[in-house]
Specification:
- The protein has one domain (about 5-170): HUPs (Rossmann fold), CATH 3.40.50.620.
- It has eight helices and five strands.
- With about 180 residues, it is α/β, with parallel strands linked by helices.
- Helix 2 (about 25-40) links the parallel strand 1 and strand 2 (about 45-50).
- InterPro entries: Rossmann-like_a/b/a_fold, UspA.
- This is Universal stress protein.
- Pfam families: Usp.
């Protein structure tokens, strides 16, 4: 029996749903959710929500399917990059479902939850842990336990360096591989 199949027979009911973004909190949430799925034998459901950059209201006035396909592709690429940055790629030791959803993040996460046995994992900025709009929404509407994962703290000198950085500083380092 394979490792994933063996864990599935010992698994906890439900799934682990994680809101994925490329923020530090989102990457930390993805790592924590993968670990929760690994330990419990649950399916990991990674959700990346997106909306047209001009907003749904403006898009409704001038719909363009090609433009929407472009931004859907960008959202899928961001989800793939988040896995690469957080975990070095998709985890091979858990069952994984990836969802790129055109919706507000809170609603997309709420809709991904299948029942009270699920675990919803979201990342937050440490200073806004209890005030974030998405956090408040999912806690009120998810219908399952919510694990809040703070972004890793940065040292003061790192924060100062980031505040002083310009686009030129990043371009000087060359393209990322």
């Amino acid at each position: 029996m394979s490792g994933v199949a063996a864990r599935r027979s010992e698994s906890v009911a439900g799934q682990v749903v994680v809101g994925v973004s490329d923020s530090l909190g989102g990457l930390a949430a993805l790592r924590a959710a993968a670990e929760q799925a690994r330990r419990s034998g649950r399916v990991l459901v990674a959700v990346h929500a997106w909306e047209p950059p001009e907003g749904e209201g403006m898009y409704a006035r001038r719909p363009d399917r090609q433009w929407a396909r472009h931004w859907h592709g960008e959202a899928r690429a961001r989800l793939d990059r988040a896995f690469a940055e957080a975990l070095g790629g998709p985890p091979r030791d858990v069952d994984l479902v990836r969802r790129v959803v055109r919706a507000r993040p809170g609603r997309a996460l709420r809709d991904a939850v299948a029942g009270p046995d699920d675990l919803l994992v979201i990342g937050v900025h440490p200073r806004r842990m209890w005030r974030g709009r998405i956090h408040r929404y999912v806690v009120a509407h998810a219908g399952c336990p919510v694990l809040t994962v703070p972004a890793p703290p940065l040292a003061r000198h790192e924060l100062r360096a980031l505040r002083r950085a310009s686009a030129h500083d990043f371009a000087a380092a060359g393209p990322a591989d």
